[in-house]
Amino acid sequence: MKKSTSAILVFMIAIQMFTIAYSTGVERSSAAAAEALSEEARERLEELVAQNILPDSFQRNLRQAITVDELARLYYREERGLDQIEIDHPGFDENTPDYIKAAFLYGMIDDLNDLKLTMTRAEAAKRISKSLTYTVGTDVFTRDFASVKPSDFHAVGNVLSASVIPAIQGNFQPNKPFTREQAVIGMDAHSSGNIRGILPFSGLNGQESITVGSNYAYLSFESAEDAKEYIGYQVKNMTKGVKLTGKQQRIDVGFAILELWTPTHEVKFTFKNGLERLRFRGNSVLYGTFVYTNWHGEGYLAEPRELKAAEKANLELQPDSVHRKLYARTDQILKKILKPNMTEEQKVKAIFDYVVTQIKYSSGADYISAANALKAIEEGRGVCAHYTSLFHYLATRAGIPTIPLSGPSFVGEHAWNMVYLNGKWVYVDTTLADGKKTIDYTYYLKDAMFMMKTRTWIGYGYPDINIYPEVDGMNLKTTEELRVYLLRKMAESRTEPPKKITFKVAGAKVDTDVKFLTVVSPEYKYKLNYDSKNKLYTMIRG
């Protein structure tokens, strides 16, 4: 996954007047000339118009909120190859524009009534994320990640990572309007996606006809050979353990009901209710609500089962066998350790204490997973991934938003949790709380700046020097600004960290403890000196 490094610069206050040229070199005045645009948007607009890429309708009113219809037209205005695709949904007919059909096909829109809607940046992220070819990101690389709803993290992470909706001065601003200007800037980063944002086109050769409804995709192949080729390429990975007979079959593949009519060259997927994400990992399929730690995704593993002739298909999204067993155990535990009328904070402490006392630090597979959470319950032992996994699933089943995190730390590669309490995200480390006699609360309900002293991670509160606005090293107003400044100074030297760094702080609340750098560059030590006369701090490398 590539981090998003593109950022929209400070909006220009003065009205910008500019001219643009056709690709033939003939100059003309842009209809957007009277608009006050960001510098990046102005340059991008000139480039797109000069190349005759941007339609006339997107060369004006760029500061206005974009509608769903306009966004679909911007992304899919040149979409081709839709002749073989039929949309089976109310309101669609032969007169429906291809860009609208494409937006429905890829999952950007679910209904024609959506077209006149404008969107916040978070709402746009959810539509765009679903329509991307790949779900490429999960981490929220912004200063204001806490203002993004936990349920939107996946979508926001995707559009940031793909640079489709760049950050603005280091912030995502989820509740701000998504404008035509912002859509234009990210239009080239967008890519046509999967069928209904779910099923990849992989294995299709373009000769088949496809009928798409709100919750299904019906594939009709020209020949038995084409059908067999698709089944061999795509379907076999979904149906491992089920013998394909070559006759009519219905198979529950976890995320959908798959119907095969090989003799008549047809395949149908009926997607289950609530399905939002699908991920092919090797020869397996993951679906459902993913748990992320850095770039590792963990969802429900498809466990295919052939349905009997008269059996009614279950279209409700169901966990796999490991998650079902885990949920049964975690629900039993929560009944014992949680009491009626507990506050959210009291629930978190009860879960924290249970995890710390339940697990004895030992050994085991070091990754976040339902299997490791279950092992922690059943065997009572494990490493940081087991502590973190169990805390995550207990908190999630208790209705408390939580995210597992991992990264380098003063104890090596490590894992811990972020949890949402009282309107803000705080951090807990159950592994390091596991003392010999009593629970150690040193790393309980702490903020990002405190945790940063002993570990690094990606996104979710850790200052990202690539998207953070410039800071004045002689006028550092917050601890976060100081950390960003020092991290940038460390990064500027490609061979080794600088021998000396100087800075000034503007307030008494700035934490000048630089021990966090021992995690960033453990092989180098710095001594901090303070010149009270000039109010100047100097870090000298030992």
Automatic annotation (TrEMBL):
<dbReference type="GO" id="GO:0005737">
    <property type="term" value="C:cytoplasm"/>
</dbReference>
<dbReference type="InterPro" id="IPR038765">
    <property type="entry name" value="Papain-like_cys_pep_sf"/>
</dbReference>
<dbReference type="InterPro" id="IPR002931">
    <property type="entry name" value="Transglutaminase-like"/>
</dbReference>
<dbReference type="Pfam" id="PF01841">
    <property type="entry name" value="Transglut_core"/>
</dbReference>
<dbReference type="InterPro" id="IPR052557">
    <property type="entry name" value="CAP/Cytokinesis_protein"/>
</dbReference>
<protein>
    <submittedName>
        <fullName>Transglutaminase superfamily protein</fullName>
    </submittedName>
</protein>
<feature type="domain" description="Transglutaminase-like">
    <location>
        <begin position="376"/>
        <end position="432"/>
    </location>
</feature>
